[in-house]
Design a protein that fits this description.
The complex is a heterodimer. By secondary structure, chain A is an alpha/beta fold. Chain A contains 14 helices and 13 strands. In chain A, the strands form 2 sheets. Chain A has an 11-stranded mixed β-sheet, sandwiched between helices. Chain A is globular. The two termini of chain A are 20 Å apart. In chain A, 60% of the residues are buried. Classes of the chains: A alpha/beta, B mainly alpha. At the A-B interface, helix 9, helix 11 and helix 12 of A face helix 1 of B.
Chain lengths: 468, 61
Amino acid sequence: MNDDIFFAPITDLSARLLNKEFSAVELTRAFGERLKTLGPRYNALALPLTEVAVKRAKAVDDELRRERLRGPLQGIPFGAKDLLSFAGHRTTWGAKPYETQVLDETATVITKLDALGSLLVGKLSMIELAGGPSYRSAEASLFGPCKNPWDPARWAGGSSSGSGAAVAAGLVPFALGSETSGSILSPAAYCGVTGLRPTYGLVSRHGAMALSWTLDKIGPICRTAEDCGHVLQAISGGDSKDPGSAGKSFYYTPQYARKITDLKAGVAGAGFDWAEAAFGVLREAGLKTAAAKLTDFPYGPMISTIIGTEAASIFEPLITSGKVDQLQDSRQIARLKAGLEIPAKDYLKAMRIRSLVRDKFRELFYDLDVLIAPTFPSIAPKISEPFDAPATTAVGPSRPPNPLGSLIQAGNLAGLPALSVPCGFDQGMPVAIQLVGPPFSENLLLSLGREFQQRTEWHKRRPPFMAA
Amino acid sequence: MVKATAVATLVGQTQVAQASPQASAATEATRSAREANQRASEALAKFEMPMATEPAFLFRA
């Protein structure tokens, strides 16, 4: 198979499958073998599942022959973050204490994709326990530091590290990741791919490791915004097995998208030329923009208190048994232990302020349809640098304060959807903008992302391959 | 016997010397984690809001 296949969007692969250019078995075997061969070079692979997927692909080919069509994901291989359970197979959560864990149930999102004929070719690496309350370096994973396909000396981002790296390196057409506070957007931005964090409650988390009940979300990492729309439609929907479920479905309807000329965005480029250039592309398409600023709230202390408390409660048996000391990252070990000491008053205060954060966003979205800002103000850090080392700044040393600088934390606290799209390169590494909208505004974000990607080529760039 | 005791003492000292950097790193990480909790607690305490503000979760019977 031509290498172009490995970097084609889902929509293209689906059309070629229906055209009988190749079968689902051939496509699955090609991606499965590639993932098995190249995945370990990036430390992106947790568990290969090629043979299981090929067996299932035979049934999908039968369906395609009988024209029992199930949509654009039928016959398309994918990878899943190793925090999602797949019955009868290892699910490690990226952490030594769970190295041999085998769960009985399959995560709802994987079951839904399977029902549409999508094929799980492998589990993908992640930061241990999805990062827990905090971690100090890229080494915080059972699989080793996940290498960025654009520069293997740099990190792929996290905690959905393998999901970002595998899509960027053309090892899977799309992957599932999860986000508690930045874990989809970070690998998507650092690896130059498109990531969607859905509204809290839109996608079932049944069968996923819990880190923070009130913050965890599952979403897709793909090549394009359009692909994210198709995957989100497949995995969304109410689930009585997830107490956080909003009981809503999502239908990807680009044909009904509001005209870009009717939309107004709040923007803050933080002095980055590449962000300003990206806003310029959207302005040329007719988007109206205005300067935007987040209300001052203690976003950092809130999110650390909420994740710290909920994670310590979830992992209390791990902490009290002493097995927590088997984790790689000393900061995560200490933060998990200290999480048991956070007073109830602090957790409740954080959750009360969170109500006000949600209300302020509602007010902000009376006037604005969407917020747009750099996803991250820095390129992917070097693996050898701990995260508390000074950031590798994308451009120039001095920079004005960013009025949307806490957008990842604030957006997660308010449960808002976000789309990260690649928008350029700095020092040879991808950079990205994030689009954040009101709850359940995924179609709006995806239509803007699609518009941007129809006018730019950044999402089509391929990383150089690592030396064998 | 004296020689054996001296060797054992030496081995013991080496073990202590090897263990202590790890132990002190763990102690430092614990201290740092507690300080982070304390800083967060102080930042949250400073934030004033209406008494009627309810937390962002709801119990459903």
